Amino acid sequence: MAGFNPREVNAERSLEKSSKELRTLKKVIEKYKDDPKGKKKMLKQMQKYWRSPLAEVRSLDYKPKGPNWTPPKDLEANLEAMAEYVDPRKECDETEINNSSLTPDQEQELRAKLSKTNKTDD
Fold it and tell me: What is the DSSP string of the chain?
């Protein structure tokens, strides 16, 4: 969406809008965990609101907060939880990836199978 505002303001507005949408989406999913019809109805209402002219008008009133911005309390809790998150995948080097248990003949056969196109797929 092009506008007359500086890029930083547009980016900040877009991030703020996305974070609001994700927060409300999370609340709806948690609230209607066991009710698929209720969840579908609320998601439809959310989508209707976020794509409405009213939401666009409210986004026009957005004032950039800049360096004084602090995230909402629930977002801070999520950020703290993510900081404690440890990636279960171990970091692997390229040497680990290149080491394979295939013999050169098996590797060649596998490459031949992968490179052939199946005529039934076309």
Answer: ---SS-HHHHHHHHHHHHHHHHHHHHHHHHHTTT-HHHHHHHHHHHHHHHTSHHHHHHHHT----GGG----HHHHHHHHHHHH---SSPP--HHHHH--S--HHHHHHHHHHHHSPPTTT-
